[in-house]
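seq as requested:
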Amino acid sequence: MIEMATCVLPLQSGRAAGAATSSAPSGELCQLQYLGGPAAAAAGGQQRERAATRARLTGAALLGVLSRYIVQPMPGASYEDMSPLTSYVSLLSAHLGSVSALQRSVVGHVLAEWAQACPEPPLPDSLVHRLHVCLSEPVCYDEMAVSFSRLQQDCRDYLALLRHYNLPVDDSLQTARVLSFEQIRQLSGPVSAELLAGVQDSLSAQVTETLQLRQQSVRTASHLVGDEQTCWATRTQMALARPLVLMNRLTDKLNPVVRPLMESIKRETDPRLQDLAAESIVRLLELHRERQSTPILKIIKNLCVLICYEVCPASTSCVQECRSDGQLGRHGSQRGIITLERLQQTAEERATRRGPTSHDTGGPLAEAAATPTSAEHTLTGQNPQVQRELQRRGAVRALTALCERFAATPPDRLLELSLVQLDAALPTEERAVERLVSALQVTEVIVPSLHAAVAQQALRRLGRLREFLGSQFKSVRHMAARCMAAYARLDLHATLTSVVRHVLPLLGKWLGVRDGAPRWGGGRLKGSGQDPTEIETSYIRGSGVFRLPSSTIGKIRVQATYRFDAVNTPTFATLARCYGAPISRPVTCTCRLCRMTAVERDSGA
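struct tokens:
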């Protein structure tokens, strides 16, 4: 193991991967293994970056497990100057004292893994104090030295150009040895705009255009460098906050520890690091569950808020679908099925574009992962849709881990923002619709991870979901159907029994625009693309808990006043696969379902 570790060269962030040959002093060729592994040798951008991050996390986990043995004194040995613990802590403190983001983050992950392997690691107070200091001090990391120096030089050149044309620049900008990010933003923003607006008549058009181009160049460079600094700070601060949470070495002020963890939940592009932040958040909530303080309640509320950032091709949230015509009572917020509308819009966009789109490659995150860039953070800053998807993904991971960790006793605040909201009456006002849709989005996330002791509370509200399928607002119907798909993962038999008895009959109702809402709610079962997929996974594993009658298949193909034949094909194919799957008679099937199955089998024969 030690020989293999000595072959790993800790290069810069994501720069090298794979293997290379080098000539040894004896003339023999030896193979050098590079950080990230041979699989990342031909990769670029985020794939190489994530391979390097995976290697660092693996090495930190190994060293963290070995730390409990490294600090133990050797039997029979006497230590006059420094004990193994003192020597090891001095080594870690030296890396924490550096201004390298990689060194600080790796030390943080090592200490976190040490805390997991040893519940009470013998860390001195000086090292814990150093961790708190690192969380609160602003640092421009070594990894930013080249880009930051280049940005400083661009600002100096721009200031010199302004002085050349006798434009009055503030003395604080000219005399500052190092311009901060805020000063650079002011220089490339309101300061330059005011200067150029005041002398636009006295300067020629060519000179004004040159100054505007230089201003735009400085502004773009400042945004890129600032986003890169934010990315490094987010990863480093999260790594330093982890061991403090796992060791429960926290102070009365939780904000310095909570803030980097929540920032990682919202901004981190690497799923592994986002999972580590989610686990730390859950551990923090577990440690301070009885503490009815504002930060703890805020964490749960903020996670639920992040869940409600719905991502769709049109960058429109599910709640905003209610405002498609400006008012809830208008026709556009009631009629139709959101999923089918989105699929139709996606099909139209594909037809008008040339080449593959982000939807062909798996969504915005897949498109971002294929972009050849060494800085993942620049993608999130340039694409708001990717940023919203990252926030939702991090919040989903955090709430899922929270439900699994708390098991039979989830926080009351979480249930108040999800299941309890389902007891409300059908909404008729905008704010009531927004609250209900938000609660349904949170419910969709937490229901599959609920403990069996809490699952009954959710199943008792299955009838409320059926009522929401008949709502006049399509956003409520949309989320109610998605929640039923999530319920199928919690209790497949109860959910599908409810679907057969109460939801499928809605497909046969058609009484007009307003009264047609129940049919659209039932049509959401066929128009989702998500619901049958969720059901299909458990259905095939359950071996015949549910069999679709041929009459249901016929209703699925019934056309409404508008056609979605092209976009409805994938969902129909999914249901057809379920219908044609081999089925054995289920043990827990009711007599009514058994008779329906026998009739359908005989008629098919």
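Residues 164 and 287 are 61 Å apart (CA to CA).
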